[in-house]
């Protein structure tokens, strides 16, 4: 359990979080970390088989949803409201598609990245802000990327989507000032996960492995989950506005130490 002074006044003694993109990577690791800290967790993603396995492993609750579907978002929000108070919303769902230069970028890929990174975060945050208020306050966490803070060759589409996503917590924090809701951005750099680069590079396993070639210790999902849970378990008056987390070998989006 988090220390007593992290509690939101009037909130239940066992906090509950909703974690999106929970079927893999950072989302699944965050579910594991929160459960280890004594939180109740509702995990959501599209893949029911992976959610079932995560529930069997951690004891989390699950609700499958495609967050690009407004109807699925509405059903998920209704489920959250009907199953207990909510302390934290962790907007982790998202991803990258392609690594093409601007000149060759596919507009449909850019549109899809905007949908899965920006509009999913917008829809679910809008749907659950009233619930957070009604339950005594809580936290909205948005997992962006260092791509939200800078760019790199071949990254314009993803960086554009993540820059846009970053504006949600940056603006929301201003709009909610004085209310008992913390707004947190987590911006990971190079994280080696099971699927991120594989999905980005259209299933090319060799190209995905090359992203991390020679990097002594890229981050792993649990490193980012640890940072997320740390922000959630600070005393209630402490807001971690924006936390950039990179491996030591990565100085920027374009400068990475590689061996060999």
If you had to describe this structure to a student in words, what would you say it looks like?
The relative contact order is 0.15. A seven-stranded parallel sheet has the order 3-2-1-4-5-6-9, with helices on both faces. A two-stranded parallel sheet has the order 7-8. α2 links the parallel β2 (40-43) and β3 (61-62). The chain starts with 15 loop residues before the first strand and ends in a 15-residue tail after the last strand. It has helices spanning 25-36, 48-58, 70-82, 107-134, 156-175, 196-200, 205-211, 221-232; strands at 16-19, 40-43, 61-62, 88-91, 138-143, 181-188, 191-192, 219-220, 242-245. The chain has 260 residues and is an alpha/beta fold. Residues 1-6 have low confidence and may be disordered. α3 runs parallel beside α4 (107-134) and α4 (107-134) runs parallel beside α5 (156-175). It is globular.
